[in-house]
Design a protein that fits this description.
- This protein is an all-alpha fold.
- The chain contains eleven helices and no strands.
- The radius of gyration is 61 Å and the shape is elongated.
- The relative contact order is 0.05.
Length: 308
């Protein structure tokens, strides 16, 4: 019992010695880029879908940018998937090559150097090696490959002669018909440009006609508005506010008698001077006659005062 306990203690102490690294069994070891590229290629080509997972394709793109060696590892791993005996896997592998064909020179060189094998695996150009099952995936693989080859030829055919000669072989010898996707796209764009020019011409003509008719339209609208104003007056015109009160006027005073003489005043004519020794004239009652009184200023014709 003592010896067993001693051995256990020694083993525990040996496990804790410095310099010895112990990893937990649950901790995974870091994956190198080459293994990761192969695993992602295997994953993206065996999804069972007809469309490519662009998220995984972008992850592969970030890995193969490290060096040209990583690009070669990707091409070899995807080419291995292209050689499988299943058309759906070949379809996704072909689309993965198409995703990187315009992005990487190394991918273009790799495929152009194997263009005949690419035709054999994606188009079934060899009679003894038809495309594998399933049939719907094989038909889709053939059609999509012709579309991709036509696009590659239009963009890179002059730079890579084997690609141009291979496409000529498909159309002249293998009697495969390209879908003319480029021509259809050009015709569609030309049709859209013609429709745009016609619409712009119609708009400019309508704008000129509107500018010519604008004065007449404005006059008719003014006449119509005046007519409605006469027939149906506005509510604002029925309830006009009263005018503001006039400011108070100062009172007008009567002219003073000490002011300048009024032209309406009447002066009595002067009496003749009495001769010396003659008595002043008297009236019937024996009093001095009024005619002998000196001239006096008669009172003015004062009218009744006006009310203020």
């Amino acid at each position: 019992l003592f010896s067993w306990a001693g051995k256990s203690t020694l083993s525990l102490l040996a496990g804790r010695l410095p310099g010895k690294v112990h990893r937990s069994p649950s901790t995974p070891s870091p994956e190198d880029p080459q293994t990761r590229i192969r695993r992602l290629v295997h994953k993206v080509t065996k999804t069972g879908e007809n469309t490519l997972d662009e998220g995984v394709a972008k992850e592969i793109s970030g890995l193969i940018r490290i060096s040209d060696e990583m690009v070669l590892i990707f091409c070899q791993a995807n080419w291995q998937q292209l050689n499988t005996n299943q058309s759906q896997i070949r379809l996704l592998a072909m689309r993965l090559f198409d995703y990187f064909f315009s992005r990487s020179v190394q991918v273009r060189k790799y495929l152009v150097g194997r263009i005949n094998d690419f035709f054999r695996l994606c188009l079934g150009t060899v009679p003894d090696e038809p495309l594998p099952e399933p049939k719907f995936a094989a038909d889709m693989l053939r059609d999509q490959t012709m579309v991709v080859l036509e696009r590659w030829r239009a963009q890179w055919g002059t730079r890579y002669p084997p690609l141009e000669k291979g496409c000529q072989y498909l159309s002249r010898v293998a009697h495969l018909r390209f879908p003319d996707v480029i021509g259809a796209e050009n015709r569609r764009r030309q049709h859209e440009a013609d429709e745009y020019r016609q619409a712009e011409s119609h708009f400019q003509r309508a704008q000129r006609e509107y500018e010519d008719l604008l004065p007449s339209i404005t006059g008719n609208l003014a006449t119509l508005e005046n007519t409605f104003e006469l027939l149906i007056p506005r509510v604002e015109s029925l309830h006009t506010p009263p005018p503001p009160p006039l400011p108070p006027q100062p009172p007008q005073l009567l002219p003073s008698l000490q002011e300048e003489p009024d032209p309406n005043l009447v002066l009595a004519p002067p009496l003749p001077a009495p001769s010396s020794g003659s008595p002043p004239p008297t009236g019937p009652s024996g009093s001095v006659s009024d005619s002998a009184a000196p001239a006096v200023l008669l009172s003015p014709r004062i009218h009744a005062p006006q009310s203020f």
